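Posting here for the record, re: phosphoenolpyruvate.
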Amino acid sequence: MQKPTSQSSSRAYQGIAVSPGIQIARVHIVDPVKTDITRRVIAPSEVEGEKKQLRKALDSARREIAELRRKVLESLDEAHASIFDPQLMLLEDEVLLAQTNERIERRHETAAQAFTTVIHEFAGKFSTFADAYIASRNTDILDVGNRVCQFLTHTQNRNHSLQFDDDVIILAPDLSPSDTAQMDHEHVLGFATELGGPTSHTAILAKALEIPAVVGIGPFIKGVPSGVTAVIDGYEGTVTVDPSPREVARARARRRRHLVHERDLQKLRTLPAETIDGYRVELSANVELPIEVPHVLAHGAEGVGLFRTEFLYLEKDGLPGEEELYMVYRKVVEEVGALPVIFRTMDLGGDKFFAQLQTGRELNPFLGLRAIRLCLAYPEVFRTQLRAILRASAHGRARIMFPMISNLNEVRQAKAILKSIMDELRAKRITFDEAIQVGIMIEIPSAAICSDQLAKEVDFFSIGTNDLIQYTLAVDRGNEQVASLYDPFHPAILRLIRMTIDAAQREGIWVGLCGEMSSNPLCALLLIGLGVNELSMGALAIPEIKRLIRQIRLADARRVVEDIYSLRSSAEVHDYIRQAYRVIQRRRIKAPVNE
Ligand code: PEP
Ligand code: MG
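Prediction output follows.
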């Protein structure tokens, strides 16, 4: 989206903020390296030579990526270095090699031509996934393809140089994870790309390397002269090219404020999320990929409140085996040590179509064979995952959570399966945590309404407001056209949350909330007043929510809840809470944080 501003010739562009920070520097435009692949039919006598070239190019690419992996391991950690493992595996892939060789032999294509075709077909499979994380994997695959083809075509200056003598902000159509890892960290102050999404490996690396970054801006680079000044704002997700002096001054001031604010938040890292009058809330993180775990801990999370386990099912063609799942889960619980990790059993279906188990496209996939329904329809797949989680529970504090529960029967069936696996493991003398907590997500209105009955069956609830809002208000959570109706402050949502928390409290179980509402300060204020015990959110939001909690009294938050209960519209609710929040913020300015 392009928004020309009124002053000077500056242009502001909006994208997705993926790594925080504000920087001002001259622009350096990175053009994608073009590998010129001339199409020609090779002579039969050239076939063996082309195949040999291919093997050599694969070897060279492997060496380069292994070196990159080593560098990332040195500057970050194993979790981030392992971003390059799928690329290394791809270069060892027998099928890929066989298919390329076949094209060289049968179609008489050059190695570069054959390899490009095969790799594009392979990447294409990933781009059809609705899930953004999986779809973005094709950038990684094409990155490998490019590298190999550059060796095959002897492209000069194969790697666009990302080393500089003075400070720059990089603008590029797209950047691969290897580009990001290779950047001159001293002089690249930030980068912005036309393509890319928040869960891409490029975004993950930028965050870990603390390089402010904005992605997914759309076409904007054409016409931006290299060398012009730009401001990158990794909080708001904007890039301002050729800013006016006023815009530069404003950016500098904002940067100073953010730095002070972050320093303040950092001080809170090891302090508990406790209100002035002593009400303790557990703040945990939502995690989609194991690689995020170190980052999560750095933000002061007290555990993983929602580990979305879908990625291992979506990342490849076949179903993952028990051993593979176990190794990943074990690593995660070991990494967080004494802190708890809630493994939500797979929530496939809905917008995460899974061809292995779903036989056909559904007309209403969000209302169809999704999550626990899919698991109960394919108990062997479910059992494999549960066995892996239970085995991992012997190495840390794992918890199990079933998603998309709509009735009591589903909970009982899921628990019966879990119990039979526990019996099996005991019989085989395989250890697991005998006291493992088992909970459910409350994300369907029927579950919230019957939460009094469900509370008798489980150790905890976690309210999934992303879905609860969608199902209660009949608003597709991913449909832009009805986005204005997707309303967390709708009185119906607040009543369902209250009903759920009250039911949990009456039954003496703990209740958390892991939807996006947790990270919204206005919602968090309300949720604390309602009596939530845990809030789980994207790690970046944790310090700010902790600060809010340490600034309020439970009694005040309760009063807000009582006051809004009589309000009839979400606009009134929203305004009321905002007003209450302002009062708290004013108090915050007058009195420093209770550190
Ligand atoms: C939710 O529905 O609120 C939730 C946290 O789960 P997901 O976003 O994965 O559906
Ligand atoms: Mg959900």
